[in-house]
Design goal:
The protein has helices spanning 2-28, 191-195, 198-201, 216-224; strands at residues 33-39, 46-51, 70-75, 80-91, 97-101, 122-126, 134-139, 148-153, 163-165, 178-181, 184-188, 240-242, 246-251. The protein is α+β, with helices and mostly antiparallel strands. The strands form three sheets. Strands 2, 4, 5, 6, 7 and 12 form a six-stranded antiparallel sheet that branches. It is globular and about 45 Å long.
């Protein structure tokens, strides 16, 4: 009889522990997430991943996705950072990798603590931020190199909407922003990167929301991609929130064949 009572007591302790853990996750929103990165382009994409300063890096920090392939990455609670796609990558005889767009300068498959060299489309995340919400966006502030969409899965609260766009901007990019290889447009610069002007970079005297306004160039991006960041202070229609979600990040959500 003593043994039976002891086992029952342990079972109640175990159940109480599960309830407390579940309550903690519910209140704090602190849970790990899964990022599924999919390539629906007709060409190979080399995704890169960069954690924010002071945040442990994810693994892997870079990999290859052939057309139609996808991979999933476990992401810890409270992670923040960015993902992007490198394109037109080649490997030389010594094994060094270089990419014509989105290169991170590591010369390797994985990006070693460096971000994308503009222009590059960026998927940006801060998980379990203010109010336990995830904050996410697709940014063209550093320019554009391929279409990208973020779709939350199974989340609640906030505004769990898709962010990004399916439009291929390389063909119609303004000539003064277009990055051309041979005769083919392969990326589209931001006005900041193209001209280095503080008005476009939201820097110096233009470093506040009141001083830095949309330009004709940022409006080009905004019209084509209404839910993507078009310039530094384009927060109102470009940042989305969700809680307890996993995320699917898709390159070329509508299949693209631009080269």
């Amino acid at each position: 009889m003593v043994t039976i009572i002891f086992l029952i007591d342990l079972s109640w302790l175990f159940l109480l522990l599960l309830v407390l853990i579940g309550f903690h996750i519910c209140v704090t929103g602190a849970r790990s997430s899964t990022f599924t990165i999919a390539n629906k382009c007709s060409y190979t994409v080399w995704p890169g991943v960069l954690s924010s300063a002071g945040i442990p890096p994810l693994s892997p920090k870079g990999f290859v996705l052939q057309p139609g392939e996808s991979t999933s990455i476990g992401v810890p609670a409270s992670w923040s950072g960015r993902l992007w796609g490198r394109t037109l990558c080649t490997k030389d005889s010594s094994g060094k990798i270089s990419c014509l767009t989105g290169d991170c300068g590591s010369s390797k498959l994985e990006c070693s603590g460096a971000g994308a060299i503009p222009p590059a489309t960026l998927a940006e995340f801060t998980l379990n931020g203010a109010g336990g919400l995830d904050f996410y966006d697709v940014s063209l502030v550093d320019g554009y190199n391929l279409p990208m969409m973020i779709v939350p899965q199974g989340g609640t609260g906030g505004n769990c909407s898709s962010a990004g766009y399916a439009a291929d901007l390389n063909g119609d990019c303004p000539l003064e922003l277009k990055v051309v290889v041979g005769s083919q447009g392969v990326a589209c610069n931001s006005a900041c990167n193209a001209f280095g002007d503080a008005r476009y970079c939201c820097s110096g005297a233009y470093s506040t929301p009141n001083a830095c306004k949309p330009s004709s160039y940022s409006e080009y991006f905004k019209v084509a991609c209404p839910t993507a960041y078009s310039y530094a202070y384009d927060d109102g229609t470009s940042t989305f929130t969700c809680a307890g979600a996993d995320y699917v990040i898709t390159f070329c959500p509508t299949p693209s064949t631009w080269y």
